[in-house]
Amino acid sequence: MVVIRYYGPDPGNHPDPKELPNIFRNLKSGPEAAFVLGCDGVLQASTIDHDILDAIGLPPRLIKAFLDRDTFDPQMEDMYRGVDGTKVPQEQCWKPGPSLLPPPFAEEEKACFKKEIEENKEVIQENIRKRESGEVKPCGVVVCSPGERGE
């Protein structure tokens, strides 16, 4: 049995997870951009070729909130324990070393991403418009700890 617990009766009432959508919204990106959290605690909006469009160092509490958006992974928790992206020099935020970037995508993967984006271009643009106009609100955050996943 899987039990999912929210931050109190209102899943959107904790300030840290509520801050993340604002950060995502304020980072310069585009339809082909992905948000990547480096092991140095820097959140980057980057293209599929890993060209950085925008970057911001996250404090430990927001790194934890970012991790809590997915299923609990003890290796991820360990990797980010003690990391503070706000202490990363600006130069490194924009030009991280190769060890801080995810591995490059194969050409087939890039072609698949580009095809998917092209096929869904209208839906993507409509979702962007709805977010910017306030028509669509950010989702609440669900936190799942190891014991609550039925493990």
Characterize the structure shown.
With 151 residues, this protein is of the alpha+beta class. 38% of the residues lie in helices and 13% in strands. The chain has one domain (15-143). It has helices at residues 15-26, 60-67, 74-80, 90-94, 107-119, 121-133, and strands at residues 5-6, 34-37, 42-46, 52-57, 142-143. Strands 2-3-4 form a 3-stranded antiparallel beta sheet, with no helix packed on it. Strand 2 and strand 3 form a beta hairpin. Helix 1 (15-26) packs across helix 2. The protein is globular. It starts with a strand and ends in an 8-residue tail after the last strand. 15% of the residues are buried. Residues 1-7 and 141-151 have low confidence and may be disordered.
Briefly, what is this?
By secondary structure, the chain is an alpha+beta fold. The chain contains six helices and five strands; from the N terminus they run E-H-E-E-E-H-H-H-H-H-E.
Q: Can you lay out the helices and strands and say which pair or pack?
A:
Blueprint: E1 5-6, H1 15-26, E2 34-37, E3 42-46, E4 52-57, H2 60-67, H3 74-80, H4 90-94, H5 107-119, H6 121-133, E5 142-143
Antiparallel strand pairs: 1-5, 2-3, 3-4
